């Protein structure tokens, strides 16, 4: 869609900071113990991944919004399917090429492109 170089650099720097922030959460959460309503009983909460996450991206802030969707999914042990805006898919496609070159495991982040009306609806309405 286009933006000035200074705004693009700001977005990239903010994106890197957000990745660092989310990566830190992988080390922080270890579960929690919640007091029960019953005497002498405690409840241990252990969070588990739910599987595949669908991330539908708008056209604005295309680089940051990739990580805004992907980082929380990955840090919680899930995989993600990203569907970029059909108005600005190239940024996400370039991101996919770069993570592949970097050796990111196949299938952890997947990209699908198409109309929000059809593909976006299918991703958001799918029962799984």
TrEMBL record:
Residues 1-128 form the Aldehyde dehydrogenase domain. Keywords: Oxidoreductase. InterPro entries: Ald_DH/histidinol_DH, Ald_DH_N, Aldehyde_DH_dom, Aldehyde_DH_Superfamily. This is Aldehyde dehydrogenase family protein. It comes from Priestia endophytica DSM 13796. The lineage of its organism: Bacteria, Bacillati, Bacillota, Bacilli, Bacillales.
């Amino acid at each position: 869609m286009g933006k000035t170089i200074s705004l693009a650099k700001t977005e990239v720097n903010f994106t890197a900071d957000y990745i660092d922030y989310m990566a830190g959460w992988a080390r922080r959460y270890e579960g929690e113990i919640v007091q029960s309503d019953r005497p002498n009983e405690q409840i241990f909460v252990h969070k588990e991944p739910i599987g595949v996450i669908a991330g539908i991206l708008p056209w604005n802030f295309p680089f940051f919004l990739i990580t805004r969707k992907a980082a929380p999914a990955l840090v919680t042990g899930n995989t993600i399917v990203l569907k970029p805006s059909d108005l600005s898919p190239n940024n996400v496609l370039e991101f996919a090429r770069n993570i592949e070159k970097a050796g990111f495991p196949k299938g952890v982040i997947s990209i699908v492109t198409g109309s929000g009306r059809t593909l976006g609806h299918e991703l958001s309405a799918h029962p799984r």
